[in-house]
Amino acid sequence: MSKPVYLAVYNTLADWEPGHATAQLARAGYEIRTVGPTREPVTTVGGLRIQPDLALDDVRPSDASLLILTGADLWDAGDELAPFARTARAFLDADVPVAAICGATAGLAREGLLDDRDHTSAVSFYLAATGYGGGERYVEADAVTDRGLVTAGPTEPVAFAREILRLLKVYDDEAVDAWYRLFHDSDATAYAVLEKAGVL
């Protein structure tokens, strides 16, 4: 039985970013547990209220398979979400993977976690504005995985999910590629591959 996947939730969370990943992970048998700053409800940018399963202080890397950090307006509005970036450091230090998309990549940049890893984001100068030391490791790609850390920009939730599925070895490479072609490219030929792999 796989350990749960922790999905960080906080006010102004970008609703559209984690859905492909969490839905496919749940279908594959992973429990998705939401982690908030506290157990108090949070409200996404789309107005959805989420009651977190756990408070951040109660999170231990050893209890999880993955930590997902989504974008949110709050990442660029001060230090309120900095504790989530520090938690990401604890996960990576414990060899438990982390996946960050959109504004969460800036939070990780401020924490120094992108200084020595290949990574991507919305655009290079967005991360450069954080003053981080990893500019030479920025990659122009839809999503990047390096040493247990997935990064992606806000327009790439499907590629973000692809990298997560690949990193956790949820499906073999052929099935992950077919899944991506189906949901990103609307490639109907991918159905046969996914049916054969038992994904659909």
Characteristic terms for this protein:
200 residues; alpha/beta; seven-stranded mixed beta sheet; two-stranded antiparallel ribbon; 7 helices
Overview of this protein structure:
The structure is a single chain. The protein has 200 residues and is of the alpha/beta class. The model has no long low-confidence stretch (mean pLDDT 97). It is globular and about 45 Å long. Helix content is 33%, strand content 16%. Helix 1 runs parallel beside helix 5. The two termini are 21 Å apart.
How would you summarize this macromolecular structure in one to three sentences?
This protein is an alpha/beta fold.
Counting helices, strands and paired strands, the structural category is alpha/beta
What does the overall shape look like? globular
What gyration radius follows from the Cα positions, in whole Å? 16 Å
Biggest sheet details: 7 strands, mixed
Helix content: 25-40%
Q: Uncertain segments of ≥5 residues (pLDDT<50)?
A: none
The succession of helices and strands, N to C, reads EHEEEEEHEHHEEHHH
DSSP helical segment count: 7
- Could you tell me the number of beta strands? 9
Q: Alpha-carbon distance between the termini?
A: 21 Å
Percentage beta strand: 15-25%
Question: Average pLDDT, to the nearest integer?
Answer: 97
Walk across the major sheet and give the strand order: 5-2-1-6-7-9-8
